[in-house]
């Protein structure tokens, strides 16, 4: 498999055309709850047949869809956002990475589970995931987006590593920059993200 992927740029993805180009995208970010586990848009098509049930459930989470200027223009399931057929046409979503350092400046790394649908078994930073298209984790302006991503990072650090919210106050997250990247995991799945890295000192 080639390590490079071409993104079709003939049509710029905007708030006006995203739902037409990608029918799985919901153009309302007012969604306050996650879709049910019976969401047919996630389960349909057989793309998730044979995968771990918990990983399939996580594919139902709602990612924030962006235009190329990092503005939220909709939301879509994690499945829709990570299919290479959509990525190759330019579908972009918001993400984050946490780099957790201890008092001796040692970085905590995590090995992704073998059951993961994207990038199984690979070593990565402390925690990388997505803010969701839900209240408290969205934001159009940079400052609001950063705050939303911090809240998402606290949620995922607890979920993945058992680090509780009181151990990682929001003001301890230091926003570095935004990174726009695309990486195929295999022929079916991949990432196309606008990511916010956060270093965090954990005494």
UniProtKB/TrEMBL annotation:
Entry annotated with the keyword Glycoprotein: no
GO cellular component: cytoplasm
Statement: the UniProt record of this protein carries the keyword Isomerase: yes
Key words of the record: Isomerase, Isoprene biosynthesis, Lipid biosynthesis, Lipid metabolism, Magnesium, Metal-binding, Steroid biosynthesis
Gene Ontology molecular function terms on file: isopentenyl-diphosphate delta-isomerase activity; metal ion binding
Residues of the Nudix hydrolase domain: 91-203
Pathway(s): Isoprenoid biosynthesis; dimethylallyl diphosphate biosynthesis; dimethylallyl diphosphate from isopentenyl diphosphate: step 1/1
EC number: 5.3.3.2
Catalytic activity: isopentenyl diphosphate = dimethylallyl diphosphate
NCBIfam families (UniProt xref): IPP_isom_1
Protein name, as recorded: isopentenyl-diphosphate Delta-isomerase
């Amino acid at each position: 498999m080639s390590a490079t992927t071409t993104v079709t740029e003939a049509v710029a993805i905007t708030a006006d055309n995203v739902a037409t180009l990608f029918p799985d995208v919901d153009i309302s970010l007012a969604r306050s709850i996650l879709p049910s586990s019976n969401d047919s848009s996630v389960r349909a098509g057989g793309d998730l047949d044979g995968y771990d049930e918990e990983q399939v459930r996580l594919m139902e989470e709602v990612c924030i869809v962006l235009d190329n200027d990092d503005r939220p223009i909709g939301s879509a399931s994690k499945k829709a956002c990570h299919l290479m057929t959509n990525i190759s046409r330019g579908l972009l979503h918001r993400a984050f990475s946490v780099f957790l350092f201890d008092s001796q400046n040692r970085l905590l790394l995590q090995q992704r589970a073998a059951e993961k649908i994207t990038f199984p078994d690979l070593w990565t930073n402390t925690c990388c995931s997505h803010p969701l298209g839900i209240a408290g984790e969205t934001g159009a302006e940079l400052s609001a987006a950063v705050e939303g991503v911090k809240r998402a990072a606290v949620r995922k650090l607890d979920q993945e590593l058992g680090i509780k919210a009181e151990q990682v106050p929001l003001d301890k997250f230091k926003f570095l920059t935004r990174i726009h990247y695309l990486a195929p995991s295999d022929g079916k799945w991949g990432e196309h993200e606008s990511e916010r890295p956060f270093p965090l000192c954990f005494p």
